[in-house]
Design goal:
19% of the residues lie in helices and 35% in strands. It is of the alpha+beta class. 30% of the residues are buried. This is Acyl-CoA thioester hydrolase.
Length: 292
């Protein structure tokens, strides 16, 4: 079976384009997961899987802009795979119309593992937890990504890289002392804005972009501290109107510092008035080429 969560929108969820910000959707997914396993679970026994987990990977495809309105948006959640120590959840954020059709704003998939936070280690799923997850299991769901591209690769060799000092805020940390998985999307956004701003010349007209997809692999927990982490980014792919920025969050400035997470974000140049993608012009391509 699938679970449907009625998710309220907040005015603060909107970005400069008056759409729900790409980071905020990950909050919606987290709320929907908790609602499925705790608030409205058809059977008990999966409560620890709502918050007592760490995210191993997120795959997110943004399909249509969602604007503010007083009515909630719907989030459908279900399970696509249950293994010994991980489970995979799928999500669809949508509006249901009277004729039975849907406007889908986002599709996503998350790989999660139960975690013993007191001992800082993952654990296996219990028999009861596997039974609870089995209620929501739909193994026929097609994957978002092909098997050979389901993990973010290390930063590509060659090309210039741009670095961003990442300062963790106290409010970024969850009840278990780790930075919440949603915040990594915010960190990628902050580093991406800094990245793109370096490509602008004084007097340039704004170049508007929207996020088409984001993949994040969580490798080690990011913790609160005064010393910054380092986000290093390169352009992995450049298309006609899109580009993919590959990023690594490292433990510090040393090039051999441990990688905490990897992310790939695909953005599309966007015409605000027409509401359509537009190609990068020759000047943009000349500035992007050294970073490719």
């Amino acid at each position: 079976m699938r679970h449907t969560y009625s998710c309220p929108l907040r005015w603060a969820d909107m970005d400069m384009l008056a759409h729900v910000n790409n980071v905020t959707y990950i909050d919606y997914l987290q709320e929907a997961r908790i609602d499925m396993l705790v608030n409205h679970a058809p059977v008990r026994g999966g409560e620890d899987l709502a918050e007592g987990v760490v995210v191993v990977r997120h795959e997110v495809d943004y399909l249509a802009p969602l604007t503010y309105r007083p009515d909630p948006v719907l989030v459908e959640t279900w399970v696509t795979e249950v293994r010994a120590a991980t489970f995979t959840m799928a999500y669809e954020v949508f509006d249901q119309h009277p004729d039975g059709t849907r406007t889908v704003y986002l599709r996503a998939r998350s790989v999660l593992t139960p975690y013993v936070f007191a001992e800082e280690r993952p654990r296996r799923l219990s028999v009861r937890e596997r039974e609870v997850l089995g209620v929501f299991l739909d193994e026929q769901t097609p994957p978002l990504r092909a098997p050979d591209v389901r993990r973010c690769a290390p930063l590509p060799e060659g090309g210039q890289s741009l670095s961003y000092d990442l300062h963790v805020r106290w409010s970024d940390v969850d009840a278990y002392g780790h930075v919440n998985n949603v915040k990594y999307f915010e960190y990628l956004q902050e580093s991406r804005v800094a990245f793109l701003s370096t490509l602008r010349e004084p007097g340039d007209a704004p170049v508007w972009v929207v996020v088409a997809g984001t993949d994040v692999d969580y490798l080690r927990p990011v913790l609160f501290r005064s010393r910054p982490y380092l986000v290093t980014s390169r352009i992995a792919r450049l298309g006609r109107s899109s580009l993919t920025i590959a990023s690594e969050i490292r433990d510090g400035q040393d090039p051999d510092a441990a990688v905490q997470a990897r992310g790939e974000v695909t953005i599309v140049r966007f015409d605000r008035k027409a509401g359509t993608a537009v190609p990068f012009d020759d000047d943009h391509r000349a500035r992007l080429a050294p970073l490719l």
